[in-house]
Amino acid sequence: MALKDHRDLEISGATPRAREAFERALDAQLSWRNGADAHLQRALLEAPGFIMAHVFNAYLSLGSRDPARVRQARCAYATAAALPASARERLHVTAIAAGIDDDFETFKATLARLLEQHPRDVLALHMGHALDYLTGDIGQMGRRVAAVLPAWSKDLPGYHAVLAMQAFSEAECGRYAHALDRGHQALETNPWDARAHHAMAHVYEMTGQPLAGLRWMRARRAFWTDTVVATHCWWHAAVFHLALGEIREASELYDRYVRDTRSAEIGDLIDASALLWRLELLGGNAGRRWQELAAAWSARAGDAYCTFNDLHAMLAHVGAQDWRAARQLETALLGSQAQRSRYGETTRLVGLRACRAIIAFGRGQYQRATQLIGVLPSSAHRLGGSQAQRNLLYLTRLEAIRRLRRPAQMAAA
Fold it and tell me: Can you say whether the dihedral through the CA atoms of 271, 106, 90, 80 is positive or negative?
């Protein structure tokens, strides 16, 4: 008889020791804490035929915006596809195949089907939630979590993460009171859930409470600094400083925490670009920071994988006034929009226009920047990411309008 995981789901090919390592890996991943990889590797060493451990390994790669890392999922998929599996586990393998083929809609639909049959499959929920975020599918994000909640209770391992996912989903949908309530419930269940802390930061950001948000982050710093989302949480703290007009403090956080290690990770590069751009929109001077960041983005010039990445790479190139790199990226996007792929579609709908708007803004062509961003709202969600992250385009348009009006105001004075 097959063993069962801690949510009463059968797991083929596992041993008791491998199961415990798998559960530790899952707990770390659900809480956005460090160590999931190491625990998972122990599970695989203990039980090489443990199919859900290979599935988990593939998902660790497929949730990335880095195409090189996404390709790493192929090895785990090949192993999983050759192992004996239950119907549930086979659905996971089918989902992974769609992800490797860049068919995100089939990927998401397969996970939805899996959750209809097994609402306590928290790994499927975690991956589906990540895909909804990556594709900007706010409505599906909320529905996905709400549909499984009736099958959960606080005595089930991982319940805190389900609540944290709902907190973030509710914040994205503008239901902030409910988001706040779910976030507090998640943290009462597990105060070390960095995902829940992150969701709370979004509530404070989207409700215009930067001082309360900053106090929240400071008071709970010990719970989120040693996590996979630490850099992004420092980004949130810096954004709160900017909202308070504290440009120097935001710059210090950039230097000490956001860009201190010169990380080449996509998520860290995105945070750095977004923070420097916001800083300059508010009258700050990023100086030579742009050159370092633009150089780091240049290593990604041939990725052609994620429109969200493209936008943030363009921010860095324009911020550094590297017009050659900006033109090269624009030319690449012109070619990519013709692709019959997920990336081709997002480039065509939003990526090319958004990047051209950033170029126009950087060159002082504020009317053009305003017009280009103005036609995006109906498709801006296709960038992926959060509402707070996508607001950067809205803030850029507001600043472009302000600069257009400034000459007339000066003349009137």
Answer: negative
Read off the tokens for 167. Answer: 């907190």
What does the alpha-carbon distance between residue 12 and residue 93 come to, in Å, rounded to a whole number? 13
The pLDDT confidence band at residue 65, using thresholds 50, 70 and 90, is very high
- CB half-sphere exposure, 146, CA atoms < 13 A: 11
pLDDT digits (tens, 9 = 90+) for 358-370: 999 999 999 999 9
C-beta of residue 266 within 8 angstroms of C-beta of residue 310: no
pTM for this model (two decimals): 0.95
Phi and psi torsions of 310, nearest 5°: -55, -45
Residue 237: C-alpha distances to residues 12, 31, 45, 202, 394 (Å): 43, 20, 40, 11, 20
Contact between residue 229 and residue 195 where contact means Cβ atoms under 8 Å apart? yes
- How many structural domains does the chain have? 1
> Quick check: is 409 in a domain?
yes
Cα distances (Å, whole numbers) of residue 311 to 107, 155, 304: 24, 42, 12
Q: Which of 100, 44, 93 has its CA nearest to residue 72?
A: 100
Q: What is the pLDDT of residue 379?
A: 81
Q: Who's near 162: CB < 8 A, 6+ residues apart?
A: 122, 125, 145, 148, 149, 152
C-alpha torsion sign, points 294, 297, 299, 304: negative
Q: In the 8-state DSSP scheme, what is residue 11?
A: E
Check: CB of residue 120 under 8 Å from CB of residue 148.
Answer: yes
Reference 35, options 23, 49, 18; nearest CA is 23
Tokens found for residue 222: 């010990």
Tens of pLDDT, residues 151-166? 999 999 999 999 999 9
- Residue 409's CB is within 10 A of a number of other CB atoms, namely 9
User: Among all chains, which residue has been given the structure tokens 């997920």?
Assistant: 342
Are 314 and 326 in contact by the 8 Å Cβ rule? The answer is: yes
Evaluate whether residue 363 is within a structural domain.
Answer: yes
Is residue 98 a part of any domain in this protein? no
Q: What is the span of the domain harbouring residue 387? A: 262-413
Yes or no: say if 146 and 140 are a contact pair by the CB < 8 Å rule: no
Residue 384 lies in a domain: yes
